[in-house]
Amino acid sequence: MPRLGRLREKHPELELSITTQLQDSLAETATLDCAIRFGDGEWDGLDSSLLIQERHIAVCAPSLYARESSEGAIDLNRLTLLHVLAREDQRYLTWKHWLDAAKISGVDTQGGYEFDLLDLAIRGAIEGLGITIADWHMVASELASGQLTQMLNVHVEGHQSYWLVTRPEQTSMPQLQVFSRWLQEEIWLAQRQLEPSTAAS
User: Which of 13, 19, 193, 199 is spaced 20 to 30 Å from 27 by Cα?
Assistant: First the structure.
């Protein structure tokens, strides 16, 4: 919401209507001018512009990190792993990818708690429930404020990204171009505030 306030101050001429839903109707109706989608950027009949590439990091509450690191190396098997569900019966593989990148073996990823939304897993981590893998962009403000801390200096590029999606005939609309530039500026500013860790090789 603070970012929308900046948009209003900078471009008071823009009228904005925001809806949130798992699947938008951009391709079927002219009601929407654009959509922000999560995926691979390939949608038939639509133009897409990359906004954010996911960067997965492990985060937990500072108090949990301090307690577990006081005895030396952190044993992840002593912590509750917080997972995010891709579907009702399937977890995202972010923990596996992060552990592989960090070259950590022997961690039991079968247990832990499951959430259907990343926001809930992040909230659980803030409350000291356990440790989760989250997109750096989603937790940058919590890291900056000290609500979360990063576990190890490792991040993994995600397999999907966030895209601004439009219909081809509307891409050149002045108001969409203004909105697109503003989004890119806000993303750049957010990334400048807190640089992520070095990518794992």
Answer: 13
Q: Is residue 105 scored above 70 in pLDDT?
A: yes
Give the domain range for residue 186.
24-51+158-192
User: CA torsion sign, 195 to 56 to 20 to 23?
Assistant: positive
Tell me, yes or no, whether 141 and 184 share the same domain: no
Residue pair 190/137 in contact by the 8 Å Cβ criterion = yes
Q: Tell me the CA distances in angstroms from 52 to 64, 130, 162, one per residue in order.
A: 29, 26, 5
Domain count, the chain: 2
What average pLDDT does the structure give for the chain?
A: 87
pTM of the model: 0.76
Spell 37-57 as b/e; 16+ CB within 10 A means b. Answer: beeeeeeeebbbeebbebbbb
